[in-house]
Amino acid sequence: MPLAPFHVVGIDAGGTKTVCLVADHEGTVLSEARAGGANLQAAGELEVEKVLHRVMDEAIGPRGIVPAAICLGIAGVDRADDGVVIRGIMRRIGASARVLVTNDALVALVAGAGHGPGVVIIAGTGSIAYGRNRHDEAARAGGWGYVLGDEGSGYWIGRLALRAVVRAADRRGRATALTPLVLRHFQLDRPEQLVHEVYHRNLRPPAIAAVARCVQEAHDAGDVVANEILLQGSRELLACANSVVTRLGMREEPFPFVLAGGMFRAVPWLAMELTRRLPDVAPASAVRVLDREPAYGAVLLAIAEARGETRVPAYLT
């Protein structure tokens, strides 16, 4: 356990971006670096290793800092196979540092609620709800990926918007203000051109998620279709939060809900609606939008790891 001042590295690796922070033993951030997403399923092991190596090199720079501990928060490490791969990567690039690899949801929760009880709802390219109670037990709902789930995420909202546009073009669905907004977003003239845009350009989930801004804009203009998409998304995120709170026995407990992820900025209506509705799930709770990088949670976990004080909650069976 380091007794003298030391440095740590905290990394948050998401589907769209990777953020690396270098901090001292008191949690003061000294530098940061950013790169693209580091999703193991989408990019593969080699690309993830390149991204992580690049952001660490850039953040540490010429300072000659040797971190006492590194914490990486990345989706998928709860699954045994993915966890083995990511830990292997971190062993290769972590040198002599103590390395903690954990779910990105825990990193975001610690950034917003510290090491105490709380529930984080993440809506970015994907979505998940994750919580820990006062007994250091954890539960999660969602986070199944864009094929199996991720309801309420940017990808999910963007895909429903695209479907609404093509259904309206076929006269199978209601006319919607989403049509001109989506066409403008992709710089197209007709809905038929979306086929080439989506399939021939092989749009990745982050590109589909970017369409969610159009849904907010159409909602602000009073569009019924956009309103229903956002209502459905909010209900899905609330259901995830309710599942976590119920399983962890937190319904009557005081704790913070933390809203994290790019969708709460791109679609502010979601943040307002969840802030309004989450007290119905847990009346003694408070709701806050995360106002710092989730990677700061990785910094706090790395400091605890360097001191031998790490408390990673165990999932309820």
Explain briefly what this protein structure is.
The chain is of the alpha/beta class and 317 residues long.
Report what the structure shows.
It is a single chain. The protein is α/β, with parallel strands linked by helices. Helices cover 47% and strands 20% of the residues. It has 14 helices and eleven strands. The longest helix has 24 residues, at 224-247. The radius of gyration is 20 Å and the shape is globular. The mean pLDDT is 90.
- Please give the count of helices: 14
Report the radius of gyration as a whole number of Å: 20 Å
How would a textbook summarize the main sheet? 6 strands, mixed
Estimated share of beta-strand residues: 15-25%
Listing every helix as H and every strand as E from the N terminus to the C terminus, the arrangement reads EEEHHEHEHEEEHHHHHHHEHHEHE
Name the shape in a single word: globular
Q: Classify the secondary structure makeup into a structural class.
A: alpha/beta
Low-pLDDT segments, ≥5 res = none
Distinctive features:
six-stranded mixed sheet, alpha/beta
Topology:
Elements lengths: L6 E7 L3 E8 L4 E8 L3 H4 L1 H16 L8 E6 L5 H14 L4 E5 L1 H10 L4 E6 L3 E6 L4 E6 L2 H4 L5 H16 L8 H9 L7 H7 L4 H5 L2 H9 L3 H24 L8 E5 L2 H4 L1 H14 L4 E4 L5 H12 L7 E2 L2
Parallel strand pairs: 1-4, 4-5, 6-9, 8-11, 9-10
Antiparallel strand pairs: 1-2, 2-3, 6-7, 7-8
Helix pairs in contact: 2-3, 4-14, 6-10, 6-11, 7-10, 10-11, 11-13
